[in-house]
Amino acid sequence: MTKVNLITGFLGSGKTTTLRHLLAHKPENEKWAVLVNEFGEIGIDGALLADTGAVLKEIPGGCMCCVNGLPMQVGLNMLLQQAKPDRLLVEPTGLGHPKQIMALLASDTYQAWLTLQATFCLLDARQLADEKYTGNENFRDQLACADIIIANKEDTYGDEDRANLDAWQEQHAAGRQIIVTRQGGLDVNLLNTPRTNYAELPDGQHHHGHAAPASGIAAMRLRDGQGWRRALNQGQGYFSCGWIFSAETCFDTVQLLEWVRLAPVVRVKGTLRIPEGTLVVNRQGMDFQIETRQGAPLDSRIEIINDREAAWNTLQSDLLRARLK
């Protein structure tokens, strides 16, 4: 039997950082797999998790939580058959609704294969003061279905944020465990916590801006001879634009960082080749994290998400000008 944990959380709550932390602390004698879904079509998290040693399957385009769940089932079946993991961590898109995913994981189809354990939801408590988040149905329902809530990014909280978290817990999460942490520093032993929250949730709003994700059930790749490629997606009131560049493409570090910092969007995430190696960028609002890694990536990928349509062509032109070659 494969133990399964669902790791949810709204945009920018720190799901990928948490996954990296958990994978770095997994028992040496266990084989773990990750099924990851992103709202954008490009697929960034696979590149960010590629060096963790886990078996990884990506489902881009926000399609994991569609009602029919077909991309989810295909990806899940492939992982179970090929990897036979001891534990599976499932990371849905931050804009996804958890009900269909949880129903599939707990269905009769997988009873002989999976043991669904505690579901975790990451929360940036600063978002509790913003109606844009608290008024979002998926934001509320991700928290409602969690067995354990992780109040992440604690080092960025002020007194008002802590007070809002206490008030929210009293009103919405009485009796459930809330763990305050930073940088996704979750105790790996908590993954063995049994599932106890069986709250009945509505189906939630879900739609794509097109009939089907352009990249199917795999992260986007370049066609032969392509130097770069762009992909768009929209749904749940958000819009995404992402780019993938060939392995030979190299960016000017300073120009690239300025582009990421100044882009008038709510979310930027990417892993790109620079002269020093690989640059990992992660920006949520004004929170901006960067990391450099040795060695060049297999390709360069960057995705931006906004709560309204942005000037994609202008942003693209500025990004292309940041290329060295």
Automatic annotation (TrEMBL):
Transmembrane segments: none
Any one annotated GO CC term: cytoplasm
Taxonomic superkingdom: Bacteria
Location of the CobW C-terminal domain: 242-319
Pfam families in UniProt: cobW, CobW_C
Residues of the CobW/HypB/UreG nucleotide-binding domain: 4-178
Function summary: Zinc chaperone that directly transfers zinc cofactor to target proteins, thereby activating them. Zinc is transferred from the CXCC motif in the GTPase domain to the zinc binding site in target proteins in a process requiring GTP hydrolysis.
Protein name in UniProt: G3E family GTPase
